[in-house]
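If your schedule permits, I should be very grateful for your opinion on a structural question. I have a record of one protein: its chain in single-letter code and its fold written as discrete structure tokens. Would you kindly read the sequence against the tokens and tell me how you understand this chain to fold? Thank you for your consideration; the sequence and its tokens are set out here.


***
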Amino acid sequence: MHSPLNIIFVCLIGLLTVPAGFCWAEGQAEPQVIYLNDMSHCEPQSAIKSADSAGNGEANQWRLIPYRTKEVTGTMLGAASYVNAPEVRLPIDVDGWYSVYLGIWNPHLTYDGKTVVKARLSNREVFQQFHPGASPDNQGATFIEEVHFGNADLSEESYIAFGKSNGMQPRSSFVAYVKLVPLTTKQVEKEIARRNDPQQKNLVATFDGSSIYHFSDCTEQSHLLEWVEKHKDASTKKILWAVTYGDKVGFPTSNPNLTYLGDEKLMSNSSLIPGNDYQRGHLQMEQFFRKSEEEGIVPQQKLAEHTHSLGMQFDLMFRIGFLGGLGLSELHKDNFVSKHPEVRQVTHDGRVLEKGSLAFPLMQQLILEQIEESCQLIDTDGINLCFVRGPHFLLWEEPVRKAFEEKYGESSDGIAENDPRIKQVRADIMTGFMQQVRNRLDELGEERGRPFTLSVWVWPHDRNVWLGRHPLDEGLDVQEWIKQDLLDSVLCQEGIDQNYIDLGKEHGCEFTLFTGYRDEKTMSPTSVLKAEAEGVGSFVYWDVDAVQNDPRTWRWLRMLGVSDRLKEFRDDNTLMKRNLFQLIELNGIRVDAGLADAVYSGG
């Protein structure tokens, strides 16, 4: 941080301009930081309620709120969650490269739930989102939090725009200032080199395809794109987006055995007013997909186009656990397993489960049809089969027993549950299925003139995963798949598998690691650097949408491919802390002596 002596304060006097061509080099006097702190300059003026007018203004207007901290004084822009405030634009008139920061406020003293700030520069059409989390306020103080927006050449930028989450997921938004810190010539060269170096692109960012509707407004296609826009200029090389969930799919389907998410109507058919984030999110998802279909839009195709425009690959994830649902909901009566009870799994002791088995050709064919239809609708670069969502995939049902008897020439009656021969039979069935997937992808790739890649999300061969046993117990002979050149990459969860790595080097199959969810395995600078020391060079983040908009996580996650920078985050805990500045005065009222006098003693 720069000391106050090195900072120019622009206090309610408008915008500061810097001469064209402004840049500075090491050895020169340190340049001064620029604060754009008078949000009354935002346009259009019709979207802003003046600071001195009475009442709360129109339903679609932002408020102007004077404030003062030790570091800066200005007028912030704010809107409560229930205000449907439109986009506004703050002019910028500077030249050169800057590190851009936003000063945002999440006032607990007027508690309004979670806050979401959206911002974009004039040459970008899509916003970035910032979800700073719980308010840092306490009964004694309220704070502005400073978050990093990004590094950019502002020479051709004319404004920075701010947006708000409205609709069914309304969130408050308060922006106090924009801070511009000039970058040195060396810093600019290093930044450009990092962005252009493919060796520093090592992150596969994974989205489950549905959580985003629970976090913020997603009623327009542009809102959807905000989730991948975040990865522009980061260490991300690929977006992996879930598109199927058993027999539920996120693309408009002509397959009678599949259900389009827009037609699910879990909440649309309910008389309830959505009363929590989950209900509102699910209703928003249903309406978004239904609107997309009515407009002839495939949302994942828009995502693929935008991802490619940002220089990244775009893959589709298929979750292949087909659930029957136990008949507890009207939604389950027409799912694939309920309509085809003959494909259900059977345990060793004869219990029939409400879950489809991949031992049945009918089940395998349905997945192949999903893959074919999605590849024809969406310009994906590859397909990922997610095996950590779904175990078990096949047990003791008739095709498994029959395959055992044909292979070993004896009855399957009386065979022990842990007989290693059953593992091999399951593996033979699943490897045959993987061969079908590979062959069909090759055919589809030849038809379009560009190959599709195939990856799997699995776990180490000698370990259990949270819903399953060792991979071979589940029929997943990953090593054999690599040997047969069926795979382009293996995404491995919670453990480094040296066998996968060594075989992959022989067969051109990349090893990509998800370190884990919790404790010492949690994805962090520490766990990533530890894996790098063991030879891992590519990483995947599960449910990245749950963390990428957190400013603290994004500080290091966007730099995942820069080992030296990760070491700084690992070794210096202060880099992971929130940057907070206490408010002294707010709307003409002193708040620095404790909020009880101003707020908490009332009511």
Q: What stands out?
A: The CA atoms of residues 521 and 527 lie 6 Å apart.
